[in-house]
Protein: DinB family protein
Organism: uncultured Nocardioidaceae bacterium
Amino acid sequence: MSDSWTAPEDDPRSYGNPVGEKATYREYLSNYRLTIELKCGGLDAEQLARRSVPPSSLSLLGLVRHLAQMENHWFQRVLQGRTDVPRLYKREDDPDWDFAGAVPDPAVVEDAVATWKAEIARADEWLDALDESDLADEVAFDDGTVSTRDVLVHVIEEYARHAGHADLLRECIDGRTGQ
């Protein structure tokens, strides 16, 4: 079996030349989301929940739960100021619940993937309505403010970091690397 994920002509990611700052953010964000999806593709619940190296709780399933939580936090709670939205995969007694709760159960996998996809859809709906001029807008964050632009760059950075983790996790599971 080839270690390539897909033939280049079948790769769902786009590598165009987007015009404008917002379009550039959208393309990078979309590509990283698709990369995580590709890295998780074709694995069962046990494989998705397999931990990296003890004592780390890092797993592909944990990454999906974490990224759902991250999308929810930044797009819903911070950028839209929706503090009434419950925090996903967070528990008072376990700050690492997004990863610690990633157990090899098909129902946990189904919930995580559905939640992640729903958060992506909510984020994209909000981002679709955003004008390029809104990127400089500031929103309340912690004891100060942060610009929409900074949040978008941070979300892309978060995906990029975790796509690297996903590469290593997938290679440990079945040897597949690349793309």
Q: What stands out?
A: The radius of gyration is 17 Å. The first helix runs from residue 21 to 40.
